[in-house]
Amino acid sequence: MKVLKWIFIVILASLAILILIGFAMPKETKMITTEEINLPPAKVFHFVAGFVERTVWDPWIKADSAVKCTFDIVPGYIGSKYNWDGPVVGKGMMLVDSVVFGSYILNQVSLMPGKFIPEEWEFTPSENGTSVKWTITMKSGSPFGRLANKAFSGIIQKTMNGGREALKTYLEANGVLLSNLTEIGIEEYPAVEALTISAVVSQQEVGAWYGQSLGKLYPAIEAQNLQPQGPPFAFYEGYDPSTGKYTVTAGMPVSAGGKNAGDIRLMKYKSFLALKGLHNGPYDELSVTYGKLENYARENRIELSGAVWEFYLTDPADATDPTQLLTQVAMQLKTK
Question: Phi/psi class of residue 333: alpha, beta or left (left: φ > 0; alpha: ψ in -120 to 50)?
Answer without folding.
Answer: beta
